[in-house]
User: Which sequence fits this backbone?
């Protein structure tokens, strides 16, 4: 899944400037791989945080004793942390969708800015596509005599003009370059993080020997109670 940005960028399933896509096709997978490696590196810490109620259970509240403020705060913190970790994959997926929608919006605004300024309008690579070799340099939306062109010929808003900008824009000519890069990488990085959080939870559950039945029925609570009541065995005599 960390390699998903490569086919998406190569086959242009998500539009991007040509030069920008060459940058993204390398750095987006690198960021995803580094994120995957880091989360795998801290998997033991993540497991201890996620299963803190099992590894360090909070004592049951005594109905005949008044609960202290520290115990109440500790219990509230445990519940809040458990709720956040349960919602974390959904929040990461929502962040991925937000980055995708935001990227498409900002890319459209970037194309409008690039075509309106005319920086990429007369690129020599596009001779014969949008202009002839002898055509004079004129601003978009104007005729060679300075007369405003008809609305149907207002080139900055056409698909041909935007396609030309995607192909011909240089790195220095791309408006919102930094934001587009962050949003593009964020689409994949947050999705990879959501997948890893769910995978690491299942890995930690198997490593601890917990079954689905024990988690759903709360049998681990009884196991902890038995372990607390039974004293440890004395060390063997030598």
Assistant:
């Amino acid at each position: 899944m960390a390699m998903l940005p490569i086919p998406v960028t190569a086959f242009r399933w998500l539009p991007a400037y040509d030069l920008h896509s060459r940058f993204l096709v390398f750095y987006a997978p690198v960021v995803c791989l580094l994120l995957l490696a880091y989360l795998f590196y801290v998997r033991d810490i993540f497991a201890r945080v996620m299963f803190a109620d099992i590894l360090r259970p909070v004592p049951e509240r005594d109905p005949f004793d008044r609960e202290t403020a520290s115990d109440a705060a500790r219990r509230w913190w445990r519940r809040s942390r458990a709720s956040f970790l349960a919602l974390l994959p959904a929040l990461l997926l929502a962040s991925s969708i937000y980055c995708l929608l935001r990227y498409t919006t900002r890319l459209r605004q970037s194309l409008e800015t690039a075509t309106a300024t005319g920086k990429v309008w007369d690129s020599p690579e596009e001779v014969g596509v949008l202009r002839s070799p002898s055509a004079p340099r004129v601003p978009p939306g104007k005729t060679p005599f300075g007369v405003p062109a008809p609305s149907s010929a207002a080139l900055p808003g056409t698909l041909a003009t935007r396609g030309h900008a995607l192909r011909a824009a240089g790195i220095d000519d791309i408006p919102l370059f930094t934001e587009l890069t962050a949003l593009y990488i964020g689409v994949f990085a947050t999705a990879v993080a959501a997948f890893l959080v769910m995978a690491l939870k299942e890995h930690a559950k198997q490593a601890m020997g917990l079954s689905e039945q024990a988690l759903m029925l709360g049998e681990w609570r009884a196991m902890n109670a038995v372990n607390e009541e039974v004293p440890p065995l004395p060390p063997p005599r030598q």
Remarks:
- Residues 5-61+72-128+153-229 form one domain.
- The chain has one domain: 5-61+72-128+153-229.
- Residues 122-147, 149-156, 225-233 have pLDDT under 50 and may be disordered.
